[in-house]
Design brief:
Layout (H helix, E strand, L loop, with lengths): L10 H15 L4 H4 L3 H11 L4 H14 L3 H6 L2 H8 L6 H17 L7 H5 L6 H11 L9 H11 L8 H14 L5 H14 L18 H5 L16 E11 L2 E6 L10 E2 L2 E3 L8 H13 L3 E3 L5 E6 L4 E11 L27 E4 L11 H9 L6 H13 L1
Parallel strand pairs: 1-7
Antiparallel strand pairs: 1-2, 1-4, 2-3, 2-8, 5-7, 6-7
Helix pairs in contact: 1-11, 1-12, 3-4, 3-9, 9-12, 10-12, 15-16
């Protein structure tokens, strides 16, 4: 559809029609039933870069175990990460845990309703602060997530990158004009719902859109081109040698440092190796085990399994090599609850370790790629986790 004079959006009428549609078509989601600040906070953190369908089962399990901010603050990080296992972007869980402890210590367990205080909490940025103020406290704040950006960019027929700061400021100003006073909770959720169900990225369902008559992009026939998409570059690829070291029926696991990629998770020892490295993957892995934990090992000549795994900014091929102790000397494993890094070695793999019986692997929060690799090696793992890992790949 096209026309020579596209409509100028009527903010008041647009808001009324959008809210009427939302009242009839809103999804029943667990965080909408009881919009208290803690429950809204957990949902907003989980929904960052993750689809609603993926979040729902995680959210319900998380709230069953940690029904209050005090319960979350008391929990060990290992347990929080275990419940987050498969959802990805683990910095969200670490930040949520740290922030819960701050809320308990500084605010008596009550999430502050002040934007400046919210922004001081780990993992809370401008969007999350605005979402909490509007959805949890009913403040007249507008939110600008990916769904809302897409809706507003199409309504206004903005051909610029909607993530540019100047464009974001313009969209926030327009949303503030459209926002009916006292209705921020429903208005913001209605916009997000519209972007999620109707104003889709690749095939917008304009024929059933409640605000189609206000949409300049639709009037110009540009809804498929707006918003402007950032050109995706091919993801870099890494090869990683992974050691499966077994001794007396137990598997050697190491705990990753608390910060960085997959921080705080347990994993099999690894050694990245470039395609044109001087060392073979076996030599790289042998050196990593020696320098990280003082373990002298023999590494089999061929990989026992290979799996592909994707992250948001790179892809990886994990090559599993079975290892055996050469001299029989074992490190003295600390308690699995310990989190201090071991001082031995120059590399980044000098971490806390543990010898784990295969039947106990479910107690440890492991990366999704490692789950896939262990299954390829013949270990039986939780089938629910397998389904969640497949969902995580779609979200990434």
């Amino acid at each position: 559809m096209s026309c020579t004079s596209p409509p100028t959006p009527n903010g008041r009428a647009l808001a009324q029609e959008l809210l009427g549609w939302y009242a009839r078509h809103r999804r029943k989601l667990p965080w909408r039933d009881r919009p208290d600040p803690y429950r809204v906070w957990v949902s907003e953190v989980m929904l960052q870069q993750t689809r609603v369908a993926s979040v729902e089962p995680y959210y319900e399990r998380f709230l069953r175990e940690f029904p209050t901010v005090e319960a979350l603050a008391r929990a060990p990080l290992d347990r929080v990460l275990k419940l987050w296992e498969g959802l990805g972007y683990y910095a969200r869980a670490r930040n949520l845990h740290r922030a819960a402890r701050i809320v308990v210590e500084r605010f008596g367990g009550h999430l502050p309703a002040d934007k400046d205080e919210l922004l001081k909490l780990p993992g809370v940025g401008r969007y999350t602060a605005a979402a909490l103020l509007s959805l949890a406290f009913g403040r007249d704040e507008v939110v600008l997530d990916g769904n809302v950006r897409r809706v507003v960019a199409r309504v206004l027929a903005l051909r610029e990158d909607p993530r540019k700061p100047s464009v974001e400021r313009r969209m926030e100003g327009v949303l503030t004009e459209w926002l009916p006073p006292g209705r921020a909770r429903d208005f913001n959720q209605a916009l997000m719902e519209l972007g999620s169900l109707v104003c889709l990225p690749k095939a917008p369902r304009c024929s059933i859109c409640p605000i189609a008559e206000h949409c300049r992009a639709r009037a110009l026939g540009l809804q498929g081109e707006i918003p402007k998409r950032k050109e995706r570059r091919p993801l870099p690829h890494r090869d990683v040698a992974v050691g499966l070291l077994e001794h007396e029926g137990k598997i050697f696991l190491a705990k990753r440092p608390s910060e960085g990629l997959l921080g705080g998770l347990w994993d099999l020892p690894q050694a990245p190796y470039p395609k044109h490295a001087k060392h073979t993957p076996q030599e790289s892995l042998r050196q990593a085990l020696q320098e990280g934990w003082g373990l002298a090992v023999e590494v089999e000549g061929e990989a026992s399994a290979r799996v592909e795994h994707g992250y948001s900014h790179f892809r990886v091929t994990l090559h599993a090599f079975r290892c055996t102790l050469r001299d029989g000397q074992l490190p003295s494993p600390p308690s699995p609850r310990a989190s201090r890094p071991q001082p031995r070695g120059r590399g980044t793999w000098a971490w806390t370790w543990a010898w784990v019986h295969p039947r106990d692997l479910g107690r440890y929060a492991l990366p999704a790629g490692t789950h896939k690799l262990l299954r390829a090696l013949g270990f039986r793992l939780d089938p629910d986790q397998e389904r969640e890992e497949e969902q995580e790949q779609q979200d990434l």
